[in-house]
Amino acid sequence: MIELLTETAIQEPQRIRGLEMPWNRVMGSTETPARAARALGPWHPQEFMAECVETIPEAGAMMTFVFRRCDGAPLAFRAGQYVNVAFPVNGEDQEPVDRSYSLSSSPTEPWTFSITVKCDSTGLVSPWVHENIKPGTVLEMLGPVGAFHLPDADRRARYLLLAAGAGITPIMSMMRTIHSLPGHADVVVLYHGSDAGGFAFHRELAYIASVDSRIKVYYSLGDRSIPEGWEGLSGRLTAAMLEEVAPDANGRQVYACGPEGYLNTATELLKNVGVDDTSIYMEFFSGDRQTLLEYQAEVALAADVAEEIAEEIAESAEDYFEGQPAAFGLYEPGYDAEGTLQASGLPLEIVGPETPGSDPSADSPGGEPEAGSPDASSFDTVGTGSFTMSFMRTGINVRIDPAERILEVAQRAGVRIGANCKEGMCGSCKVVKLSGEVEMNHQGGIRAREISAGKFLPCCSTAQTDLVIDA
Amino acid sequence: MTASVNVPLNSRGKIAASLPAEQLAEITALFEFRRTGYSLDAPFYTDPSIFKIDMEAIFGQHWIFAASTAELPEPGDYVTVDYGPYSLIVLRNDDGGVNVLHNVCRHRGARVLTEAAGSTGNLVCGYHSWTYSPEGNLIHASAPGETKFDKSCFGLKRAHGREVAGLIFVCIADEPPTDFDETAKIFEPYLAPHDLSKTKIAYQQNIIEEGNWKLVMENNRECYHCDGHPELACSLFPTWGLTEGLIPPHLEEVWNRNKEAQSSLEERCRRYGLPYEVVEQLDTRIAGIRISRESLDGDGESFSADGRRLSKKLLGDLRDFRLGRCSMHLQPNSWFHFLGDHVITFGVFPINEHQSLVRTTWLVADDAVEGVDYDLEKLTYTWKQTNLQDKAFVELCQQGAGSPAYEPGPYMKSEYQVEAFINWYVQRVQEHLA
Ligand code: FES
Ligand code: FES
Ligand SMILES: [Fe+2]
Q1: What is the mean pLDDT of residues A144-150?
Q2: Residue B189 predicted with pLDDT over 80
Q3: Which residue of A has its CA nearest to B341?
């Protein structure tokens, strides 16, 4: 017992660089996001039924409702997104009332999910929810919805998370997600509440902050009087407070959630401390007509997409994942499909005016057969052998045996391919293979990149299948 | 990464020895009687013989900045670097190092690689297809009828290459100066946090300036002429290069703004563990250097009109965009600006006594997306303009040096770094000729 209480210096964990959501790895490792999405389920919005399995009272008149989908599927979403729920406030036979609630759980535990609802005694829905939703209650939902979420991959992962009151719910999801993932991150949370006993999740927050050195949590008590023994900050959000909790806010991505007034102040202050507006993401928990309309439009768009997808599933479950609606960029993965730029060696500029960026079109790999290119079945066929090589430019089919070198057979048949070393060193015979497989034994005359772009050296290659060659 | 040199390329004073004794005596006298504190005599900028000496004593003996990691990220990527009579191939090898090879075919001397940059496997000469491995060994030469042809005698000549903090340097001397190790130790900690290995080229510009390479370097060492750079003046404090006591009344206010910005920059640097102190050893060592981290005007983030960031992706593991500019000047041929959001490298490659190639490369984080995270026009605007203005200044001086009326003029106090550069140059050449 004594030993457990002794503080020993423990080293920091060793981590990979940056944060990456688990699904992003699948997306990056397969050809298209659509195909990869199959592994984890799609996160474009769907309409589904969910059953409440647990209710957890929280501080600050909040209640967490844990759900699972009735169809048994996990709910795929991004930390920070919300669901739109139809509540039969006026009884099962009346039109239900729709409300949107941020998901407070982490998508890395996708088999159940939670929303956390603050009871506003003057409201129509929340008191009903607190009173009536029990384990066993089944509700109709639409989700996930929303562009307020963590990126799928972020090698910098420096965040400032600002929450006021019930605005902690999506922030809680983000924190739980980051805590559950390995990788470098640097997270500062600043949580404003109105009274000392009203900070929802404060125990879990304290726990996460105590075990996860990547996450720091600060509390501030708004403009209320400060009770005896309060150890947090006090006062509304100010630039000085931002500087105090995150002097490097300038280099962070900021996620802020709370009532409109709070967010408007935050916008102003963040600008003052040098945060770029493109680094600020906000979720409004209350707002003017304009804001409300925007959210309505977002939900309506999600409903359209959900419907479209439902139809596709009905038509063909197989094709459904391939044919994602392209129009809804919100649900596309957040990575750049293009690789890095190559050194392009621009031409020399002799005089003042800029040369327009020249196109380094040294060779475009993969050369697809152009539309209207000749049909190999009309070519003459020469030679003997078990495979056929179609030379599209020359316009000839040449038969070849698996043991023969492609270059020799081709040259004998009159196909012009320059060749110097004939040993796979000089690269002079390099051609593009449009289809088929070869076995190549080169000696440095070609690079892996060129091979993956479809090129090969016929001087040191044999045919493994029928081939179509751009020569 | 040091390559072995299989054939001596420069013996000391080779060119000098080939000059007629009378001419050599004249040139030696020019170096000897150079008037301290004054610009150089005209022949330093106009005489082909002095250019030859420069090529031998400076570019033949020192580490030259060639390219950055971003220009050859993968095995097989190469750039060709030409200066004076030399052409070098700088090639990323399969072990991640760089091979530096003279771009001169051992058959009849053709340029082996003719592109400025690209990617290759083995190196094949375009003339008769002699084929060299990436290490420079001749691995194939068709030789019908030859009986006594020994391929191992005809490898491409190799030179030295090394990479420090993502910058690639080459040296064609048999024995490169070892002093560069110390210089590298100075600048490495300043540059490492910007992590050049995780950058990509946003844009590269090649300008040929009608001016001697020394004029290009001199012009870069002073901001006396910075009134001529209206775009740059937005982010660079117009007091650059001045010190307390030299501030004219109309710049008093700017000076105070500068001091304030500098002290908050230094506080941030201390917080993040970034070095910022000025190290100035322009003429006190072989690999002359000046490096520092200095604040920028406005928001202090980048070379934009308001000092705001030009790319939204921070470099390396930097935590803040407000890191001013870490600027390095490295003799004989380069200078650099390292910012939170991008890096600009400048390399000077002499062509002859009156022409120099200035290559400017803008690097951004390799995951920054053009059009999303940065706007290429905006990113490159300030320095494209500034480069053109500098080109014009250099050319005015070159023209002046060609006039019989030209005589050396005095460097002003704010031009002390020009004097230091020239002093370094004169010392280096004299030591070589001795
Ligand atoms: S002929 Fe040299 S690689 Fe094929
Ligand atoms: S000159 Fe290079 S192969 Fe002949
Ligand atoms: Fe200038």
Answers
A1: 93
A2: yes
A3: A251
pLDDT at position B142 is: 85
Q: Is the pLDDT of residue A139 over 70?
A: yes
Who among B117, B133, B320 is closest to A343 (CB)? B117
**Which residue on chain B is closest to A271 by alpha carbon?**
B299
Provide the mean pLDDT of chain A: 84
H-assigned helices in A41-186: 126-132, 168-180
Torsion over CA of A131, A135, A136 and A141, rounded to 10 degrees? 70
Measure the CA–CA gap between A131 and B125, rounded to whole angstroms.
Answer: 83
Beta-ladder partners of B92: B98
A-B contacts at Cβ under 8 angstroms: 128
Which residues are paired to B349 by β-bridges?
A: B357
| pLDDT at residue B18 tops 90 | no
For A153, A248, B293, B366, the CA distances from B319, given in Å and listed in that order, are 17, 6, 16, 17
For A418, A420, A451, B104, B118, the CA distances from A446, given in Å and listed in that order, are 15, 14, 7, 22, 13
Residue with tokens 């005599």: B41
Atom of ligand 1 nearest to the CA of A407: 4
Tokens 């002794």 belong to residue: A6
Q: Do A345 and B116 touch (CB under 8 A)?
A: yes
Q: pTM of the entire structure?
A: 0.87
Dihedral angle of Cα B255, B257, B259, B264, to the nearest 10 degrees: -170
E strands, A247-371, are 253-258, 280-284
Report the pLDDT averaged over residues A424-443. 94
Q: Which helix (H) or strand (E) holds A271?
A: helix A260-272
Residue type, B182: E
ipTM > 0.90 (yes/no): no
φ/ψ of residue A302, rounded to 5: -60, -40
In terms of pLDDT, which residue wins out, B342 or A328? B342
Q: What is the pLDDT of residues B39-88, one digit of tens each?
A: 999 999 999 999 999 999 999 999 999 999 999 999 999 999 999 999 99
Cα B67 versus chain centre, distance: 9
Cα-trace Rg, chain B: 23
Higher pLDDT, A368 or A210: A210
Interface touch A343/B77, C-beta < 8 Å: yes
The whole-angstrom separation of Cα A330 and Cα A275 is 23
Asked, as a colleague might, if the bond just before B332 is cis with ω within 30 of 0, I would say: yes
Percent of chain A with pLDDT over 70: 82
What are the Cα distances from residue A304, in Å, to A33, A46, A283, A318?
21, 9, 22, 21
Which residues on chain A are in Cβ contact (under 8 Å) with B314?
Answer: 156, 251
CA–CA separation, B358 vs A104, rounded Å?
56
Residue B337 — left, alpha, or beta (φ > 0 → left; ψ -120 to 50 → alpha)?
A: beta
Helix locations, A316-405, DSSP H: 317-320
Give residues with Cβ within 8 angstroms of B243, minimum separation 6. none
Cα dihedral sign for B316, B318, B320, B325?
negative
* Ligand lying nearest the CA atom of residue B227: 3
Q: Assess contact for A117 and A48: CB atoms under 8 A.
A: no
